[in-house]
Amino acid sequence: MSRFSEITKAKISIWHFLIVFIATFLSCSFLYLLAIPIIFWMVLGESAESDRIASLPFNVFLGEWLALILVLFSCLALFSINWYKSNLQQAKSYVLTAVIISFCYLLRHQIADFIIERWP
Is residue 18 part of a domain? Predict the structure, then answer.
């Protein structure tokens, strides 16, 4: 049996999955909302030149997608560690977390608009 079919048939521990998902969600939120804007502000400062630098396509890409890239990279690293140790239950948790976080991250603006509109 191949490793891919083994990982699809492996049962996950719900507690491990929830801990991984919550930690990943909180770290992605922290990076997107606090860390990346503060780092950009500390590096660029406040001036007309910094506004020009911040509007460059590469910086816009980093500002929007760096949080997801870092979180997916950490999930990939932890997945590969568990894959080589043949700990397929935990490896599957990291794969599912990466898929769910990626989907939610792509729809982050729509989710935020929905929550703000429904807030009393």
Answer: yes
